[in-house]
Specification:
TIM Barrel; alpha/beta; Adenine deaminase; 17 helices; binds adenine; 51% helix; zinc ion binding; binds zinc ion; EC 3.5.4.2
Length: 336
């Protein structure tokens, strides 16, 4: 079996995915048309040409603009359904996805419109595709604490639908400490906490995420390698890092996939996982992330299997579910 076949065949889980980042240009134009919204690009091709980013902020500016055409519950349903249909074809069996309510509530869309559309699609895909899921509400860190508190309030009636809270958007200048009190309240309310840290920001932000926000998973975390004590702590506690190789390449966190820190992280026994982040913008969903990474870093099938197993270990599935998937991967590896 080739590496490509092996990647396609193994069950996989995605732990770092922004639903707004799955908005494919074709669907964006379709939804804009039915909502009488104008997109600042004349065609799908023109829009795709704009997808060249020198850093996180250049991407975020386009990403928030794209999300502006989402208005109705059906729009959020269609967005989520398209993603789930795509990953079903890639043998993703479980997803833990982010949604950014403030991107929508700030422009007058009701919280319930957003979550109802996303949640219904997730429920339908569990029914139809057998994909299990968890939902993570992410706060936009460029906005203030009061806005995050208001969003947390709005989420409380949906506590049964939302497993965790996260922190995303413009990292540098918006440290985790800015949201210490919001996360304390979220923990009190029973949410699991995660945060983007060490994507562009320093190792210090990863410390803050651990110490102040009490996160049990770090999104990205690339910069942890700058601090030996931090690496030791992440290894000792087996805190998962949700890496996103194609995202890192497109946002110039790494200049070449061959320079990606993943092998070094594996060597140090960090619990690293592969994810797609914003696949509509970064040129690949899960299988493409696995394959491009494996090719660039010359990963073996055993290493790919380890990464896929790590993702189940790092997920919020039950221990029994984790064991079953890990065994399936091991069996496929042995027979490959
Ligand atoms: N929002 C969507 N993708 C993101 C990323 N890679 N980093 C921070 N915020 C994001
Ligand atoms: Zn992300």
């Amino acid at each position: 079996m080739t590496i490509e076949e092996f990647i396609k065949k193994i069950p996989k889980t995605e732990l770092h995915l922004h639903i707004e980042g799955t908005f494919e240009p074709e669907l964006m134009f379709e939804i804009a048309k039915r909502n009488n919204k104008i997109i600042n690009y004349s065609s799908v091709e023109e829009l795709k040409k704009a997808y060249h980013f020198n850093n996180l902020q250049e991407f975020l500016d386009i990403y928030y603009e794209g999300a502006n055409v989402l208005i109705t519950e059906q729009d959020f349903y269609d967005l989520t359904w398209a993603y789930l249909t795509k990953v079903y074809s890639q043998n993703i069996v479980h997803v833990e996805i982010f949604f950014d309510p403030q991107t929508h509530t700030d422009r007058g869309i009701a919280f319930e419109t957003v979550i109802n559309g996303i949640y219904k699609a997730l429920e339908d895909s569990q029914q139809e595709y057998g994909i299990t899921f968890k939902l993570i509400m992410s706060f936009l860190r460029h906005l203030d604490e009061a806005s995050a508190f208001k969003t947390l309030e709005e989420a409380l009636p949906y506590k049964d639908w939302i497993s965790g809270v996260g922190l995303d958007s413009s990292e540098v200048g918006n440290p985790p400490s800015k949201f210490e009190r919001v996360f304390a309240k979220a923990l009190e309310e029973g949410f699991i906490t995660v945060a983007h840290a060490g994507e562009e920001g320093p190792a210090e932000y990863i410390w803050e995420a651990l110490d102040l926000l009490k996160v049990t998973r770090i999104d990205h975390g690339n910069r942890c390698l700058d601090d030996e004590n931090l690496v030791q702590k992440l290894v000792d506690l087996q805190i998962p890092l949700t890496l996103c190789p194609l995202s890192n390449l497109e946002l110039k966190v790494v200049q070449d996939l061959k320079e990606h820190p993943l092998p070094k992280m594996m060597e140090k026994n960090l619990l690293v996982t592969i994810n797609s982040d914003d696949p509509a913008y970064f040129g690949g969903y899960m299988n493409e992330n696995y394959l491009e990474t494996a090719k660039a870093l010359q990963l073996s099938k055993a290493e790919i299997a380890t990464l896929a197993k790590n993702s189940f270990t790092a997920s919020w599935l039950t221990d029994q579910e984790k064991e079953e998937y890990i065994l399936q991967i091991q069996t496929l590896l042995i027979n490959s």
